[in-house]
Amino acid sequence: MIQLGEIYLEDHAAEKWFSNLDNRIAEQVASLAALRAFLVTLAIATREPQFDLIHWRETHADIRLVLLIVNKIYSPWRATFSTPPTAFQRFSEVELDLTLEVQSKFATFCLENASSAEREHWYEALKFCALALAKLSSSDSSGTRQAQEAAALAWSRVIEHAQEDATDLKTREFTEVAAPLFSEDWLSGELTNLWKFAIARYEGDPPEGSRFQYWRDWYRGLLTGEPLDWDLQRRLVLIDDTIWDKGPESVADEIEQIRARRQVEIACANLKDSLKAQTTARHGIGGNNPPESIHDELLSGAVTLIWEAEKELSTALEAENPSRVWIETILAKFKSGLASFLRWCANKGDLAVDTLIKWGIPATGAGYAAKYPEKLEALIDALERWLPFLH
Known about the structure:
The chain is mostly helical. The protein contains 15 helices and two strands.
């Protein structure tokens, strides 16, 4: 067995550099290191064929720590550490095998230290990040020498990225982070193959279903610098403890419900923006009130119905749990309004654009005539996907 003290990561130059960072930068550098270490946790979480509730409880604690780190917001949930964040040296006499399970423990220690309010823990997060990733840099870490080499290589990469992060964070906020978590030159030689192996561990689902689909997409977004919708991520932090504790399937169901509602909100906002974009027209579609000067009865009725449905939906979305009957009624109005609008366009043919312009729609009327049904259809589709979750 190898003792952690035998692969102790001591780097006076790096420690001095980190101590000179201001608190805001130092905390965020540690947070980004934790996001990199989290890969190992997901590799464990999505492995097959066995994954029981005990494994899940350890994993979801890490997931929620990452959500808190990413969002930096207040949440009723606070992590309860089985091992409080402590100085790295306290673990120096622990005997270990550098198995993926042990690396996952290191990833957890990294996350806990990065989440701490105490600055003394943030540098420790960098060390545990290196240990969490060390297994990926050596195919044989069973010996002390191999373990030392693996840790040294991972540490050099962790510090290199940390210094790049510190430079970048001086010109932007943490919440604006959109760069990939790993630079292209991180991978080299044997590390490339082992990295691909770790990635593959969370690419495929266990046979029982797609319970980790969201987390793979979510983490892939962090890896590549294309994070998923921030508002959605903030809502995930607030998922109730009882749902998390039931298992990954329950959390997956809750995420689908949250995503379905979020898609309705986005589609509704897009439609509303489309209406507001026409406020330059003194009369007609998209003014501050339902159109009164449109004399074509079919078009006037369609637009008024759509307008009313949009107002009702905006009101419904202010409720935490709007009733299914309420949303079905609104959906029916949107469908009826869209059908009438499309019939009017079909009847008018090429005259449709000219008519829109005549009624005060600017020269962009052609694009509007095309995009208006498109945005309505997107909203209708989002509402239909949301309905199964309502009561």
